[in-house]
Specification:
The complex is a heterodimer of chains A (about 230) and B (about 240).
Chain A lengths: L4 E2 L6 E2 L4 E4 L4 E2 L3 E4 L2 E4 L3 E6 L2 E6 L11 E9 L3 E5 L6 E4 H4 L19 E9 L5 E4 L7 E2 L3 E4 L5 H5 L4 H10 L2 E4 L4 E5 L3 H16 L6 H11 L1
Parallel strand pairs in A: 4-8, 11-13
Antiparallel strand pairs in A: 1-3, 2-7, 3-6, 5-6, 7-8, 9-10, 9-12, 10-11, 12-13, 12-14, 15-17, 16-17
Helix pairs in contact in A: 3-4, 3-5, 4-5
Chain B lengths: L17 E5 L7 E7 L2 E12 L12 E8 L15 H14 L11 E11 L4 H15 L9 E8 L2 E4 L3 H4 L5 E9 L4 E5 L7 H31 L4
Parallel strand pairs in B: 4-5
Antiparallel strand pairs in B: 1-2, 2-3, 3-5, 6-7, 6-8, 8-9
Helix pairs in contact in B: 1-2, 2-4
Classes of the chains: A alpha+beta (about 230), B alpha+beta (about 240).
């Protein structure tokens, strides 16, 4: 048998169709697939090699919901028994009465008094079915309606970078700008402060992280960025 | 009729000057520009998103919807009548068919991926420029793709096989046959081939071979443009 050959380096940027490795010794993971004896990229991404496994870290793309994700959504429709919520996916998610509140609601009650059109909520994904039916819940710590503040959007794949190790990045931004920040896994971020100028400052800092996502020593740079402001 | 020297002074297998850029439209999910000679195509991808009208929905997998449009000021002569036409409907359809083999849409039942291709300046080879730009835009939007798609037009002008015809050559009075070809560069599989005109079997073989080399050149540029957008942040 011929020897397997790796054709890319760690952290290299590849595009769909790029051949990453030849031979059967390597295994394809997320963002890659095998064709004959080759491993080929199927997304734009950054190569990450762990032993025999080759995967791509996504640099773009829309949010794909997973069970347990805490996301920020906007109410787009109020029906008789449930709400529809836009969570930045191709399909709208449903929030049922049972999952929305523990209060007793008489038949025929106006549901807009709980959540009205256009309101933003922090919610959790409980199930994602194969037919792309997504169920949400409001039962859980911190899940609530988001009043006031502003919502900005970033690339969902960069969310872990904004949060930082054990929340280090977002906590630093919170402390420096004196704001409340909630980050949804879907790339939507809610920023709230008494002073709108602080919100603006936090927004700029988050945009800065989004733009410089792959730099080393990012925390230090963000610190400098915040001090300058 | 003899065709000895190209109007544009190019070699017979030489492409026009090309330029490509990815991420030109901020609000789109993916976008790209491709310029070849005087032809400029821009492509924008939106989605996957809910498909309307609902009767077009496919509950098994998502659909691709392309829209090819020549802008009214894009031609070299008269104003192009704006809006959909018989011609643009057909080209939209062949572009869809040229792109769908590299996409996997089984993850998006009932949804649509919209690709808008706008030609802001035209000098022949518009559907090929459109496909090339659309492939980059699709990759930019983060969709799962088996490969990119590169496209070029080859053909016979007078008695010569030429690559990348411009408008002047297409209208050559000694007769010209234009063959737009799209292929997946890695595997060399053809996803679009249109031909009307006269050409012999041997000449067609020769033209196909020439298109392969030309597509590889375009492919390199596509890769470069994509990596430029995502690479610059990592240096």
């Amino acid at each position: 048998m011929e020897k397997s050959k790796l054709l890319v380096e760690e952290r290299q940027i590849v595009v769909p169709g790029d051949i990453l490795a030849e031979g059967m010794d390597y295994l394809p993971e997320q963002g890659t697939f095998r064709e004959d004896d080759k491993i080929i990229a199927s997304n734009v991404g950054m190569v990450s090699i762990k032993g025999r496994l080759i995967k791509l870290i996504a640099l773009n793309g829309k949010y794909i919901p997973r069970t347990g994700d805490v996301v920020i959504g906007r109410i787009t429709n109020v029906a008789t028994m449930n709400w529809l919520v836009d969570i930045g996916y191709a399909y709208e998610a449903g929030l049922s009465l049972k999952e929305a509140t523990s209060d007793y609601i008489p038949r025929g009650e106006d549901l807009t008094q709980f959540y009205d059109f256009g309101e933003n909520i922090m919610t959790k994904v409980i199930t994602v079915s194969r037919a792309k039916m997504i169920d949400l819940t409001m039962k859980g710590p911190g899940l609530r309606k988001l009043k006031g503040g502003r919502i900005i959007e970033i690339t969902p794949s960069k969310v872990p970078r904004i949060i930082g190790r054990e929340g280090s990045m977002v906590n630093m931004i919170k402390d420096a700008t004196n704001t409340q920040i909630i980050i949804g896994q879907n790339g939507k971020i809610w920023i709230h402060s008494e002073d709108p100028l602080n919100e603006l400052k936090a927004e700029e800092a988050i945009k800065f992280v989004d733009d410089n996502c792959h730099k080393d020593g990012l925390t230090e740079e963000v610190k400098k960025f915040l001090e300058k402001k | 009729m003899k065709y000895e020297k190209r109007f544009s002074d190019r070699k017979f297998d030489e492409l026009r000057e090309m330029d490509a850029k990815v991420g030109i439209i901020e609000r789109a999910d993916g976008s790209a520009m491709f310029k070849i000679g005087k032809t400029i195509a821009i492509a924008a991808v939106y989605g996957p998103r809910q498909l309307h009208p609902a009767f077009l929905r496919n509950p098994q997998k998502g659909i691709l919807r392309c829209n090819y449009n020549m802008m009214s000021f894009s031609g070299s002569g008269d104003r192009v009548k704006p809006g959909p036409s018989r011609r643009s409907r057909e080209i939209s359809m062949v572009i869809e068919n040229a792109l769908i083999p590299v996409l996997d849409l089984s993850d998006f039942p009932n949804a649509v991926i919209d690709v808008f291709i706008e030609l802001i300046q035209t000098d022949a080879g518009t559907r090929c420029a459109g496909i090339t730009a659309a492939a980059m835009a699709l990759a930019d939007s983060g969709l799962t793709m088996k490969d990119l798609v590169s496209a070029v037009s080859v053909g016979k002008v007078g008695d010569k096989i030429v690559v990348d015809l411009d408008k002047e050559e297409e209208d050559f009075e000694g007769g010209a046959t234009d063959i737009p070809i799209a292929m997946t560069p890695r595997t060399g599989k053809i996803t679009l081939l249109q031909l009307d005109g006269e050409i012999s079997k041997e000449e067609l073989d020769k033209a196909l071979k020439a298109s392969r080399d030309a597509c590889n050149k375009i492919y390199e540029l596509q890769k470069k443009a994509l990596k430029e957008k995502y690479g610059e942040k990592n240096v």
